[in-house]
């Protein structure tokens, strides 16, 4: 499937031209601004910045505390990196900013994998897991930074690592939800339905739904780009911007990532009290 739609009328006259990235999506380059290669794909990344803020733990929100990014947990920082890195990539379509974009994607999925899979491990186990994830990410980032195809990053290797890190999240999250529910039942804390597990499962499923809908739009745009361009040309702007489907991928993926961050934090909350978060003992903290 093509994800390098080059040859747009203004592609070589933009501020950041020529394109050196391996990917160039369906949005017509420099159609809106001389300084922004893909306008909607750039600004739709604000959804990740928004999710980085709204998913902060309660003690880091309000009275301007959310602006103290040096106090943010790694998941929030990773969401911020995704948003800013992806915006820089779509604004410039440069090889270097593509690597920053990809690094943010590895950061958020790797951070969530570490949070979930390190839960309950010994210090040695946590070190080994962190080394494994860090080594994989560093290796792929270094490989793609150097360039493999005529000086451009290898998109297949990038997707393989990202999908692998993402896929590892789901079975671990489901396991912890069920395990913690079983522990609460054995302890006699439940009277009827486990509302905690129900809330966690709903948030987890919502995150999965957001991701798959966004991914479906991403694939659809890659397959039917030129038809979508014809429709956008017929409807004109700003209505045509609704059909910039890669922008919707950003928004929906950001919302899904926010749900995964919240779920992972609740599942591992008992290990975070030393960092200043409220001890929940497996109970959901309502927003």
Overview features:
hydrolase activity, acting on carbon-nitrogen (but not peptide) bonds, in linear amides, 287 residues, 61% helix, Rhopdopsin 7-helix transmembrane proteins, mainly alpha
Q: Can I get a quick summary?
A:
The chain is mainly alpha-helical and about 290 residues long.
What do these coordinates show?
With 287 residues, the protein is mostly helical. It has one domain (39-271): Rhopdopsin 7-helix transmembrane proteins (Up-down Bundle). Helix content is 61%, strand content 0%. The protein is built from 10 helices and no strands. The protein has helices at residues 39-43, 46-54, 74-92, 95-117, 123-146, 155-167, 169-186, 195-223, 225-235, 245-267. The longest helix has 29 residues, at 195-223. It is found in: Membrane. It is a multi-pass membrane protein.
């Amino acid at each position: 499937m093509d994800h390098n739609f080059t040859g747009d009328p203004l592609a070589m006259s933009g501020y950041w031209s020529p394109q050196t990235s391996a990917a160039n999506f369906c949005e017509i380059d420099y159609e809106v601004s001389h300084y922004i290669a893909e306008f909607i794909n750039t600004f739709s990344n604000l959804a990740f910045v928004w999710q980085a803020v709204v998913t902060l733990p309660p003690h880091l929100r309000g009275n301007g505390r959310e602006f103290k990014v040096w106090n943010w947990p790694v998941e929030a920082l990773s969401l911020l990196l995704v948003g800013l890195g992806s915006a820089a990539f779509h604004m410039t379509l440069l090889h270097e900013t593509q690597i920053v974009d990809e690094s943010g994607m590895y950061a958020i999925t790797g951070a969530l994998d570490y949070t979930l899979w390190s839960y309950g491990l010994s210090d040695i186990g946590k070190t080994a897991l962190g080394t494994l994830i860090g080594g994989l990410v560093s290796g792929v980032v270094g490989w793609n930074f150097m360039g493999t195809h005529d000086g451009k990053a290898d998109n297949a290797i990038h997707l393989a690592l990202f999908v692998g890190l993402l896929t590892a999240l789901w079975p671990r999250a489901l396991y912890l939800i069920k395990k913690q529910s079983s522990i609460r039942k054995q302890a006699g804390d439940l009277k009827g339905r486990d509302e905690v597990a129900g809330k966690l499962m709903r948030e987890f499923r919502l995150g999965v739904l957001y991701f798959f809908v966004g991914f479906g739009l991403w694939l659809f745009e890659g397959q039917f780009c030129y038809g979508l361009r014809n429709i956008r040309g017929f409807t004109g702007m700003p209505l045509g911007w609704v059909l910039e489907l890669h922008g919707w991928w950003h928004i929906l993926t950001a919302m899904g990532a926010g749900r995964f961050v919240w779920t992972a934090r609740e599942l591992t909350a008992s290990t975070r009290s030393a960092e200043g978060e409220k001890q929940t003992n497996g109970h959901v903290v309502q927003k």
